Amino acid sequence: MRIDVLTVLPGLFDCFLREGVIGRAISRGKVDVRVHNLRDFTTDKHRVVDDVPYGGGPGMVLKPEPIFKAYEELSSKGEKPYVILTEPWGEKFSQEMALELSRKPRLLIICGRYEGVDERVKEIVDKEVSIGDYVLTGGELPAIVIMDAVLRLVPGVLGNRESLSADSFSDRGLLGYPNYTRPSEFRGMKVPEVLLSGHHKRIERWRKEQSLRRTLKMRPEIIEKLKREGKLTEEELEILKEIEKEGGNPA
Ligand code: SAM
To answer: How far is the CA of 71 from the centre of ligand 1 (A)?
Structure first.
């Protein structure tokens, strides 16, 4: 997969692209991420990327010309990229969207800044994406969030792909189960006995139950939706009945 990013602050991506799982995947050539400075697509002496808003008001707006020029140059060779524009009012980013995006061969992420981008840029945008109901100073952090969630789903990026299916939101939206590591007792807090038993079937059942308990407690609407859509197994419905019988707090 290839991702191009268009930004006025390319330096913000340095650490992200160098460190950890994503840094390793890039250096091993599993994914190709290219960050472009929007100023490199200007044609004037001062490399101006923004201007005042028509109609007046505070702040500056990113001009359309450099963005269109970058889009045209970057799309001129190979597969046309799927274009994302980061915006607070965009479609809310989710694991489901990350999965959908991870299947695209190419993405181009345009990072807004200042008051935002000239509305005419929407002409080349496939999806406006928000990472949450709050306003940041620019689209660089959203672009990093999107890339991190998308790239870890690309085959070859994570060492152990099995861990993906145990992630929250991956299995029909259910949340992940609790994890423990050594020591088996820490400051009087013990690891649940079942995890030390080596009994794979019991461990699997315990994890399923914990995942259901956590989802019921933190995101009950996910359980309701799965029930309505008939997406829970007999075993899961049985576990839920047992939890409901206990009454009180599901966790
Ligand atoms: N004037 C905009 C508004 O009415 O919401 C806010 C602009 S914001 C200061 C500058 C840029 O940051 C946006 O164009 C967008 O690219 C990015 N941005 C800010 N918050 C975001 C969020 N929650 N999700 C995605 N992008 C965001």
So the answer is: 20
